[in-house]
Structure formats: C-alpha cells, structure tokens
Design a protein that fits this description.
Elements: H1 34-39, H2 41-51, H3 59-73, H4 81-97, H5 99-109, H6 114-132
Helix pairs in contact: 4-5
Keywords: Signal
Signal peptide: 1-19
Protein name: Chemosensory protein 4 variant
C-alpha cells in the first residue's frame, strides 16, 4: 500500500539531496504533522491544489510533486519508515474521506489505480481478520 502521495506529501516530503541520485529521500520533513494537514480544510485544499497544479506550492510541496512519480514507480523504495507511514495514512484518508479529490490525484499520479486496489485489498483483509477472530 503506498503513497501518493502521494501526496502529501506534505507527507512524504521526498526531496532528493543536491539533485543527485540518492538511496533514500531526505528526511528533512518527516516530522510534518500529517494529521494536522488532513484535519485542516485550508491546508488540505492547498496541498491538493499544489499537487494538481491548480495553485502555488510550498518548496516542500514542489519537491514532493517532483518525486511522487519515482516513489510510486519504485513502491517507495527510497522512503523512510515515517514517509511510508505518512503516505499510507494520506492515501487511506483521501480514499475514505475525499474520493473526488483522490480520483483527480489518481488520474494524474496513478492512472492504473494500483494503489487504490492495494489499499482496498488491505482494508478488506484487515476486516476479514477481525471478523475471523471473533
């Protein structure tokens, strides 16, 4: 199950050091409070707009947007544990709470829908495991 964010980066804050190929993304923004962004409509809309080229981006938003394709293609191989955690939280939030925005982001960054499929399968498996343990 992966990222976007995808988005949000914000969330993932995946910067490459010095513009050269690195084994991991910078962890400079790993402490960004993703929950605060998801709970704040103004911040959330600003980040979504940045990722969709509808409004200006913060410097970290620009880097995130530039690195999302690589992170998606590599299944976040260069992400820190915190970046993966934030990406998963972002994707879950967007799919469950902002499906229209998720669809727009997915069309741009993940047109084959593979990350939605992974998330929904994971969610189904988690629900099945809970049901079986009762």
């Amino acid at each position: 199950m992966f990222m976007l964010f995808i988005i949000s980066f914000i969330i993932v804050s995946v910067l490459k050091c010095c513009g050269t190929e690195t084994s991991t993304y910078t962890t400079q923004y790993d402490e960004v409070d993703i929950k605060e962004i998801m709970d704040n409509e103004r911040l959330l809309v600003a980040y979504i707009g940045c990722l969709l080229d509808k409004n200006p981006c913060t410097p970290e938003g620009k880097e995130l947007k530039r690195n999302i394709p690589d992170a998606l293609q590599s299944d976040c191989n260069k992400c820190s544990d915190k970046q993966r955690e934030n990406a998963d939280a972002w994707i879950e939030f967007m799919i469950d709470n902002r499906p229209e925005d998720w669809t727009k982001l997915e069309e741009r960054y993940n047109p084959d829908g593979s990350y939605r499929t992974k998330y929904l399968e994971s969610k189904h498996n988690a629900t099945s495991n809970v049901d079986e343990s009762k």
